[in-house]
Amino acid sequence: MEEKNIETIMQLIVYGGNGKSCSMEAIRAAKSGDFKLADEKIKEAEESLLQAHHAQTEMLTGEANGEKVELSLLMIHAQDHLMTGTAFKDLAKEIIDLYRVK
């Protein structure tokens, strides 16, 4: 596997995982009534997931331009991190809204 692809895959894992972690921290903050912190953590999650999305887009663009991208377990794992991070962020926003109304 090319070094460039490994670097991009690691970015997906790191930024996707960070997005999920920040989303969980946001839920915990909202649960304790700290909505300012919850909003900050959601913003951090969104920034991390945007970085992951940029890394993914770079790889997709390369493949669309004819660059061969090797499908591997590591690649699947990275995509899973991005998907999970995005889903957690979306769900966290809904949960925070519920705590706000409470």
TrEMBL record:
Keywords: Phosphotransferase system, Sugar transport, Transferase, Transport. It holds the Pfam family PTS_IIA. SUPFAM superfamilies: Enzyme IIa from lactose specific PTS, IIa-lac. PROSITE patterns: PTS_EIIA_TYPE_3. CDD domains: PTS_IIA_lac. The keyword Transport applies. The modification Phosphohistidine is found at H77. The keyword Phosphoprotein does not apply. This is PTS lactose/cellobiose transporter subunit IIA. It comes from Faecalicatena acetigenes.
